[in-house]
Amino acid sequence: MELDLAFIGFGNVAQAFAQILRDHKSELEEAYGLRWKTTAIATARHGCIRSVVGIDLIEAAACVSAGGNLADLPESLVARDTLEVIERCKADILFETTPLNVTDGEPAATYLRTALARGINVVTANKGPIAFAYSELRSLAAGHRASFRFEGTVMDGTPVFNLVEECLPGARVLGFRGVLNSTTNLILTGMECGRSFDESLEDARRRGIAEANADHDIDGWDAAVKAVALANVLMSADARPADVDREGIRNISVESMQSAARSGMTVRLIARGQRSGDRVKLTVAPERVPVDSILGSVRGTSNVLVLETDLMGEIAIVETDPGIKQTAYALLADMTRIHEGPDV
Amino acid sequence: MELDLAFIGFGNVAQAFAQILRDHKSELEEAYGLRWKTTAIATARHGCIRSVVGIDLIEAAACVSAGGNLADLPESLVARDTLEVIERCKADILFETTPLNVTDGEPAATYLRTALARGINVVTANKGPIAFAYSELRSLAAGHRASFRFEGTVMDGTPVFNLVEECLPGARVLGFRGVLNSTTNLILTGMECGRSFDESLEDARRRGIAEANADHDIDGWDAAVKAVALANVLMSADARPADVDREGIRNISVESMQSAARSGMTVRLIARGQRSGDRVKLTVAPERVPVDSILGSVRGTSNVLVLETDLMGEIAIVETDPGIKQTAYALLADMTRIHEGPDV
Questions:
Q1: Are strands B265-276 and B303-309 parallel, antiparallel or unpaired?
Q2: Quick one: B167-321 is in which CATH superfamily?
Q3: pTM for the full model?
Q4: Cβ contact, residue pair A311, B325, below 8 Å
């Protein structure tokens, strides 16, 4: 069976995914029987199209990179906007990779609602909908016998949600702690080496890790939204980003890093979730941790998540120096999982 | 459907698993529809029995712990030996937890062959058969439409094999490195704190981690067998323990640990697998690593495995302070996976 794919958002992540699909086409068909064609792409600035014969993803990526309009691609049916694409496309899987809206997760949450209500399987790399509408979207998916997958929302393609779902059956997640934001970790690591906050931030921008406006990372919002996603999915928390007791890294000075270093410690921005009665207490804050601890060992853009469980004790998963390719891989992992059949 | 379970070997791991099954009976039925009864137990020193009505695992554990003979349990049919049990038992899953034989993996490999040839699904926590007969057993399982699972053979119940199989679809493992043996890591960690090799070994014995004869751990055999298991399963290596370039920790002195510490380093017994042309090069040796690296951060009985992959870059999984309960959990994870249906 050939899968029809639709893309909502077609930026770096989706384009890197297109590359993986092209480069691994024959292995994926051989190993998993995966075959596909692209039936729709919707973007905010480069047009929205559908296609009956199939869109060449590499051509589409070239068009978008060159600032063109997708309507110029051969045999494309132009749509008015993203919602029209979602309402009318013929798709087995819809990949949603639009930017995060940290206020309410919109319009991405509406995109996913619309797709799931049509029974289209959804893969998203956008943590907004998970932080603001997870339980609703999950019920909607179940009601329409559609899959709803989102491995790429936390720690890129590193197995986090799939790890717990597939590999820790019967175990209950009691709590978690982790370094989940690459920009702040790169800044803190820079300050460990004696560079100032501003120099370290500039370095993160030069390397393409931090955006021009990195407040969202520095003030701990990105980590908070990820903590909420983890709590909602792994601990049935039904939390929102505003529920997180959140402190960013603005007040960390080189002096405080050096003082920590003198006692074998360093500073990391740690996101924590801990069950407390019926609720899950969520915090994001800079913490002193031993340099030779697992949290301290994660430097640069690397991430780590430590999971406390009842049956399996404590395990941690680490992602080393992630790039856009790792986020794109999450889309592939989710696509493969959907292809294997409905969730049990 | 009620699963019929058979146990080959009924020591600490199987008994801890029996405890999990008892303590989580209702959750496992509710979440996974898991129901079971035990139809056979074979031991080397406490008899071999089958049962039509089902054996109470907790009673069996008490009997074995008290040095009794399983034949004394009610309604048990006495069998001559383990092979007779495997040949005659009515079982959907056979759990094999006999001791490792580092020379040839026998008789465990024969037990598994016999069970798989009867079409019985097999779960083992014994790395011998994986190190000596993996490809044969895998083919046998496929030929008889049986599952063959062995999560507990490396890093206890921490997802390693299931992690790659379930969560890293399409990705190729290019290499690995890890701290896989708890006894040597506990000794090295003790020496970090200034204790002698012998004191640290004695401490490991007191804590029940090292056996009376710990040569197998100290000389790197345990880590080597695990490296072979990883290479055979994750990298299709068809290697044997004798293929591993192996060096233990006997020559590590407190002085060399202190000298490493002066430059921010420590020593870990590292198992490595690296693809090199058609072969996988396997080594186990003490290595100097930075104290603040992920390999250095693993202390005491904790383990870590770093996987290099093509599509997902480098990820690591860490198990903190494992105990017998974590190995027992591997049996549950494998049992749940088998219950979900045949491998694709």
A1: unpaired
A2: Dihydrodipicolinate Reductase; domain 2 (3.30.360.10)
A3: 0.96
A4: yes
